[in-house]
């Protein structure tokens, strides 16, 4: 499946929407979109994963790096709308503890109740 990535600004967030599968052949496209998102100060990244059906280790690495970079710059990074396969991958790797996870885009934009807060120990 072809990867599509879009970026928009809403409610002080940079929303990066990922459609399709993130694997090593498409990682450069995601990396470029993430780099562009760091023009906002402080960076407040929100990844909408409602249409992402797979992510491999190269994609996971990019998400973790984006979160780390955002926090170092005084910003934030959250994920919303995880589908079952990416959710399982995140849980199996323990990376679900590294992000605030929101059930919907609306909940994330309004800073509603997350499914899970990022672990302070991660």
Describe it:
The chain has four helices and five strands; from the N terminus they run ββαβαβαβα. It has helices at about 25-35, 55-70, 85-95, 105-110, and strands at about 5-10, 15-20, 45-55, 75-80, 100. A five-stranded mixed beta sheet has the order 1-2-3-4-5. α1 packs parallel to α2. The longest helix is centred in the middle third of the chain and has 16 residues, at about 55-70. It is globular, with a radius of gyration of 13 Å. The relative contact order is 0.16. The mean pLDDT is about 90.
> Biggest sheet, open or closed, and with what strands and sense?
5 strands, mixed
Instruction: State the strand order across the main sheet.
Output: 1-2-3-4-5
Helix content: 25-40%
Bulk shape: globular
Give me the count of strands: 5
Radius of gyration: 13 Å
Distance N terminus to C terminus?
Answer: 32 Å
SS summary, helix count: 4
**SSE order:** EEHEHEHEH
Structural class label: alpha/beta
Residue fraction in strands: 25-35%
Low-confidence stretches: none
Q: What do the pLDDT scores average to?
A: 90
Write the layout of secondary structure elements.
Layout: E1 4-10, E2 13-22, H1 27-37, E3 44-55, H2 57-72, E4 76-80, H3 84-93, E5 100-102, H4 105-109
Parallel strand pairs: 2-3, 3-4, 4-5
Antiparallel strand pairs: 1-2
Helix pairs in contact: 1-2
Compact overview of the structure:
With 122 residues, the chain is of the alpha/beta class. It has four helices and five strands.
């Amino acid at each position: 499946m072809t990867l599509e990535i879009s970026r928009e600004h809403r409610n002080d967030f940079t929303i990066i929407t990922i459609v399709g599968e993130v694997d090593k052949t498409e990682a450069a496209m995601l990396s470029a979109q993430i780099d562009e998102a760091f023009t906002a100060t402080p960076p407040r990244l929100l990844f909408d994963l409602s249409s992402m059906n797979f992510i491999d280790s190269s994609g996971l690495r990019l998400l973790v790096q984006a979160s780390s970079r955002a926090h170092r710059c005084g910003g934030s990074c959250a994920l919303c709308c995880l589908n079952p396969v990416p959710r399982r991958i995140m849980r199996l790797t323990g990376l679900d503890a590294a992000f605030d996870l929101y059930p919907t885009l609306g909940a994330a934009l309004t800073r509603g109740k997350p499914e899970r807060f990022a672990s302070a120990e991660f």
